[in-house]
Design a protein that fits this description.
The complex is a heterodimer of chains A (335) and B (808). With 335 residues, chain A is of the alpha+beta class. Chain A contains twelve helices and nine strands. Chain B folds into six domains: 67 residues, Phenylalanyl-tRNA Synthetase, Chain B, domain 1; 101 residues, Nucleic acid-binding proteins (OB fold (Dihydrolipoamide Acetyltransferase, E2P), Beta Barrel); 197 residues, Phenylalanyl-tRNA Synthetase, Chain B, domain 3 (3-Layer(bba) Sandwich); 73 residues, Phenylalanyl-tRNA Synthetase, Chain B, domain 1, CATH 3.30.56.10; 209 residues, Bira Bifunctional Protein, Domain 2 (BirA Bifunctional Protein, domain 2), CATH 3.30.930; 84 residues, Alpha-Beta Plaits. In chain B, helix 7 packs across helix 8. The longest helix of chain B has 19 residues. The chains are: A alpha+beta (335), B alpha+beta (808). Chains A and B meet through helix 5, strand 1, strand 2, strand 4 and strand 5 of A and helix 9, helix 12, helix 14, helix 15 and strand 26 of B.
Chain lengths: 335, 808
């Protein structure tokens, strides 16, 4: 009896193996598992066995019945796929139906990365007007009227007292006017200077930073910018701080990074110096504290600023800044 | 500014190699822009030998020489009387640029080809002698470059001097920094001039009528001078920094300017009426002809140097043609003044006239340096002109200022810099650049230094200025790198920033590429967009000094920029565009100083919806494509209660009437969506239909929800029933749907538009509209019987409300 159910099962498997199409498989299934199928019959006959043999026989027969059912399904699926591949299938190399996919402007991508790095350090983002009072853009930042320092920035004028902001620095004053120390902000935004060539456009982007608190030192400025550069570029990108001049910082520092193209060997991008000037920075000038009513004896701080476009040019290997604002789709789609 | 290594060596013994010096100067704040070899211009000049001298067939005074250049024998036309066969002489080849600016080319001189030029000392800028060609040591090798054969080498540094360091706009100023770097001595030239008497005061006088503009005026007088070319050493110094020698007197003023940074002016004393100087401001409407022969129109704020009758110079800016040194000048009045920087700056800005002198005056020269510079120049002038200085000098000094000393705290210095400098270190660093340190204020105060900056350091006015000096001399790179303590009190991004970031990602998902256009606009941009006269977007913020016509104002709409971008891409054969921009627009408000700045999102879709591909035919995008983007965008932001209603025809300026919708939310206009007006397309030279949307972020932000409260998801299945009605084509489907939803029992979950159809068999002027109504109960599985009467009542209401019919 035991052997016979097993034998029936084995025979059924042999037949399945030989089956060449779905109908044959279906016939086999009906013959063994159908209402009048051999295994079905066998199961019905179990009740005629002695009571002590029934549970074991029933269990075995049910197992084989399930196994055979699965085997039938599997054979059918195999036959389906085998058959269809043989019939040619589809050309999987044909392109799929296009799903929409735009892109972010390269300046946006770099701007977000810069902001991400600083916000993770604990800086907040501040924003402000692009058409700005001379007071905020120059006067309060310690650029007196009729001072040659104003020549450092070719300014677009709207009137005697209103300019297109030449840097995002006016937000230093606007923010400090509004809140007491400590201040930890970065200020991304568009800025304007009347200049246009391979490396200058009349509009470009800056991110400015300001940190004012008790006991903030020039060493802290170095540390913060070093951490930034290491994240923006990589840990191998060393920095060089050298004296510079900005009316609103004292001491002021220009920050060079090791040329990311040649790693300091000297190339066209770094004018063979091995260094790239990417940041201006310094300790906040006490005149600014006086202008916003901070206690200059108690608080110290640093500020820094960088050109987003220039960093984007370096990161993406772009040699003409004007490409950013032509919006050629063949350019934009690369990013 | 250019300085040469050889000139610097006159004042400081330079121990470093030029490249190390360049690096060291950069690191103390004098950024070296370039380092070049001074004799680079001699690269194409070689040691040549004259092999043969023959007569020039067409000129008596010229010879035809055959010259061995070391590589070839060339034929050279030469007029020098001292040319001899076998003589070694410099041979310049075509391309050589001489110090006087002449560029040698291969020439035909009187019918004979000259493939080079045999040169005199004078021509090469190597000496005075112009009488004949230079005779070189016979032991030199023919074919060697002249500069290396003669051992000529000098390095020229181009330095970018920041506006705060006018003291470094001179060779001595740079030498002083080098001395500080090397910790070596600075040797000043002899600034003393012995005066036997004070006879100058009998011959001339100085009267300052505008002491605010001219705090100090020093004059010396020279007589019996003879105007001639300067001696070679003087010419050579000027040439080494890129200045052209003119004559001995003018050259001395330029030499002393470069040496000390003090601008000087030499007047022909005999051309000064009444032989005296009056310093006054100009009269309104006064005109003056400067040295460059241009007539200048003056205003009352400009400082004029005058004689007894007339103006002779614009003070500190440029001299006049009427008192210039001429070949027959025999007496010179030498001016060495300190002019007010602001006054000079205003004048140069006003006149658009910049000179080396004005550049220094507007940054601030050394008020204490006028006498030494005058002495130095007078002595040199006497020396090089055969004349003599009249005894004495005049020093009018109405604007004398007392020397100010500053208190510097060691502890505060260290706190700001993050250093641990000792008081003595700070003292030594400051002394190295000629700051004086006062005697101890009080015996107990070991912290404070009393520091007096030298008079040439006009930039030093606060203790922080001294700290910068300490830091830069100590070396920025020697300051330890630390990290500030940042308490964990960061704020979340503002709604504006979040919306902007979210928008960018959504637009990407809809297939739109981000563009960034200039924030500028053409002043006629309102016309280009056909804006009505009263449209606030005609209130332009105009730029007084624009770079170009089409950047003469700030934009009041993102649309022109997007259309220009489309135009640019069409020209690149890219016809299918989906672009967006987020940026500010600027509306001028007469009532306030600053314009209103609004952040706006705008998108443009033109060309295909699908490009032709194996999936199907190309299909052009239309109004409903761009509207779908807006709907999906607002939906993603969960701004749901939004209506699109037809923009009244008189408001359709840059969009096509009948194909434009305003987007309304919470009673405010959020923006618009529509097809561009054909005339506007034409204004931007575009021929292809384009669709756009604009959304004002300022109106969108109040509609953003801070939180979302979740609703239960349905537990029971829904029943879907369709209705088709035939209505007038003019009826907006929005009306039909809202009517279907109105007064419906809670079982009606949704009404959705299935299809809209016009054409046979529907009668003209009508359309069939099919709706699908979703019914669902929150309590149980609905039975058909429960839905049928409700569905019937909706159908009845639609028919009745819109006078609709049901399909046959």
């Amino acid at each position: 009896m035991d052997n016979s159910i097993d034998q029936i099962y084995q025979e059924a498997l042999q037949e399945l193996k030989a089956a060449a199409d779905r109908q044959t498989v279906e016939d086999i299934r009906v013959r063994y598992l159908g209402r009048k199928g051999i295994i079905t019959q066998f199961l019905r006959n179990i009740s005629k066995l002695p009571a002590d043999q029934r549970p074991a026989a029933g269990k075995q027969a049910n197992q084989l019945k399930n196994l055979l059912d699965e085997a039938c399904q599997e054979t059918t699926h195999n036959l389906e796929t085998v058959g269809e591949t043989a019939a040619g299938g589809i050309d999987v190399s044909l392109p799929g139906r296009p799903a929409p996919c735009g892109s972010l402007h390269p300046i946006t991508q770099i701007n977000q990365r810069i902001c991400d790095i600083f916000t993770q350090m604990g800086f907040d983002i501040a924003e402000g007007p692009e058409v700005e009072l001379d007071y905020y853009n120059f006067e309060a930042l310690n650029f007196p009227k009729d001072h040659p320092a104003r020549d450092m920035q070719d300014t677009f004028f709207v009137s005697d007292d209103v300019v297109l902001r030449t840097h995002t620095s006016p937000l230093q004053i606007r923010t400090m006017e509004k809140q007491p120390p400590p201040v930890r902000i970065i200020m991304p935004g568009k800025v304007y200077r009347c200049d246009s060539d391979l490396t200058h456009t009349p509009m470009f982007h800056q991110v400015e930073g300001l940190l004012v608190d008790e006991n903030i030192s020039f060493g802290d400025l170095k540390g913060t910018l070093t951490a930034f550069v290491h994240q923006m570029f990589d840990e191998q990108t060393s920095l060089r701080f050298r004296p510079g001049f900005f009316p609103f910082t004292e001491p002021s520092a220009e920050v060079d990074i090791l040329c990311v193209m040649c790693r300091g060997k000297g190339c066209r991008v770094c004018s063979r110096t091995g260094w790239l000037e990417i940041l201006g920075s310094g300790m906040v000038h006490p005149a600014l504290y006086e202008n916003v009513g901070y206690d200059a004896d108690r608080y110290t701080g640093f500020a820094f600023g960088m050109g987003v476009d220039r960093i984007a040019m370096l990161k993406f290997g772009i040699d003409d800044i004007r490409k950013f604002f032509e919006n050629d789709i063949r350019f934009l789609s690369q990013f | 500014m250019k300085v040469s290594l050889s000139w610097l060596n006159d004042y400081v013994n330079i121990e470093m190699a030029p490249s190390d010096l360049a690096e060291a100067l950069t690191m103390v704040g004098l950024e070296i822009e370039s380092v070049s070899e001074r004799y680079r211009y001699l690269d194409t000049v070689y040691v040549g030998r004259i092999e043969e001298i023959g007569p020039h067939p067409n000129a008596d005074k010229l010879h035809l020489c055959r010259v061995d250049t070391g590589r070839e024998q060339i034929s050279v036309v030469c007029g020098a009387p001292n040319a001899e066969i076998g003589m070694l002489s410099p041979i310049a080849l075509p391309g050589t640029e001489f110090p006087d600016g002449f560029v040698l080319e291969k020439n035909v001189i009187r019918g004979q080809t000259s493939a080079g030029m045999l040169c005199s000392e004078g021509e090469l800028g190597l000496g005075d002698d112009r009488s004949g060609i230079m005779s070189l040591d016979p032991s030199l090798s023919v074919g060697d470059q002249l500069a290396s054969a003669l051992g000529l080498s000098d390095t020229v540094f181009e330095i970018e001097i920041t506006p705060n360091r006018p003291d470094c706009l001179s060779v001595i100023g740079v030498a002083r920094e080098i001395a500080a770097i090397q910790n070596s001595r600075l040797t000043y030239p002899d600034f003393k001039l012995e005066d036997k008497d004070n006879s100058i005061s009998r011959q001339t006088s100085i009267k300052i009528e505008a002491p605010d503009h001219c705090p100090r005026y020093v004059a010396r007088l020279l007589e019996d001078i003879q105007i001639k070319p300067s001696p070679f050493w003087l010419q050579e110094r000027l040439l080494s920094v890129g200045l052209r020698p003119i004559n001995n007197i003018v050259d001395v003023t330029n030499f002393v300017l470069m040496e000390t940074g003090q601008p000087l002016h030499a007047f022909d004393f005999d051309r000064l009426s009444e032989n005296r100087i009056v310093v006054r401001t100009a009269n309104k409407g006064e005109t003056f002809i400067t040295l460059d022969q241009k007539e200048r129109f003056l205003d009352a704020e400009m400082l004029m140097i005058c004689d007894g009758a007339k103006a002779v110079a614009i003070g500190g800016v440029m001299g006049g043609l009427n008192s210039e040194i001429e070949d027959d000048t025999t007496r010179v009045l030498l001016e060495s003044a300190y002019f007010n920087p602001v006054s000079i700056r205003r004048t140069t800005k006003q006149l658009g006239l910049g000179t080396d002198a004005a550049y220094r005056f507007e940054r601030g020269v050394d008020p204490g340096g006028t006498i030494t510079a005058a002495n130095r120049a007078a002595k040199l002038m006497a020396e090089v002109s055969g004349g003599r200085a009249v005894g004495g000098l005049i020093d009018e000094y109405p604007g004398r200022q007392s020397v100010k000393s500053l208190k510097l705290s060691t502890q505060k210095t260290n706190r700001l810099l993050g250093t641990r400098l000792q008081r003595k270190q700070i003292e030594n660093l400051l002394k190295s650049i000629e700051f004086t340190i006062g005697q101890k204020t009080a015996a107990k105060d070991k912290d404070t230094l009393v520091v007096t900056p030298p008079s040439f350091r006009v930039d030093i006015s606060r203790p922080e200025d001294l700290m910068e000096e300490v830091a830069r001399l100590f070396g920025y790179n020697n300051i330890p790198t630390t990290f500030p303590q940042m308490p964990a009190t960061g704020r979340l991004s503002t709604k504006e920033i979040n919306l902007r970031n979210r928008t960018r990602l959504l637009m990407n998902g809809f297939g739109f590429r981000e563009a960034i256009n200039y924030s500028f606009a053409h002043r006629q941009s309102g016309d280009h967009l056909r804006l009505k006269a009263a449209d606030p977007r005609r209130q332009l913020v105009n730029i007084l000094n624009p770079l170009t016509e089409d950047q003469a104002a700030m934009r009041t709409s993102l649309v022109p920029g997007l259309l220009q971008t489309a135009h640019y891409n069409f020209a690149q054969q890219i016809k299918n565009l989906r672009i967006f921009e987020i940026g500010k627009i600027f509306i001028d408000e007469t009532s306030q100083q600053l314009p209103t700045e609004n952040e706006v999102l705008a998108g443009l879709w033109t060309g295909s919806r699908y490009e032709a591909s194996w999936h199907g035919h190309e299909a052009q995008c239309d109004f409903y494509d761009i509207k779908g983007v807006v709907e999906a965008f607002l939906n993603a932001l969960q701004i749901n209660d939004v209506q699109f209603s037809r923009l009244p025809e008189n408001e359709c300026t840059y969009t096509r009437p009948g194909y434009s919708a305003q987007i309304l939310g919470n009673q405010t206009r959020l923006g618009l969506v529509g097809q561009l007006h054909p005339q506007v397309l034409a204004n931007f030279d575009l021929a292809q239909a384009a669709f756009l949307f604009e959304l004002n972020f300022d109106n969108l932000i109040p509609l953003l929800k801070d939180t979302t409260v979740s609703r239960p998801t349905p537990k029971f299945p829904a029943i879907f029933r369709d209705i088709t009605i035939i209505v007038n084509t003019a009826l907006e489907t929005r009306e039909i749907i809202s009517t279907a939803l109105k007064q419906s029992p809670e079982l009606v979950e949704d009404v959705r538009l299935l299809s809209v159809f016009e054409g046979t068999p529907i009668a003209p002027g009508n359309k069939s509209v099919s709706l699908r109504v979703t019914y669902r109960s929150p309590q149980k599985t609905l039975e058909d019987e429960a839905v049928t009467p409700i569905h019937q009542s909706i159908a009845d209401r639609l028919v009745k409300t819109f006078n609709a019919s049901l399909p046959a």
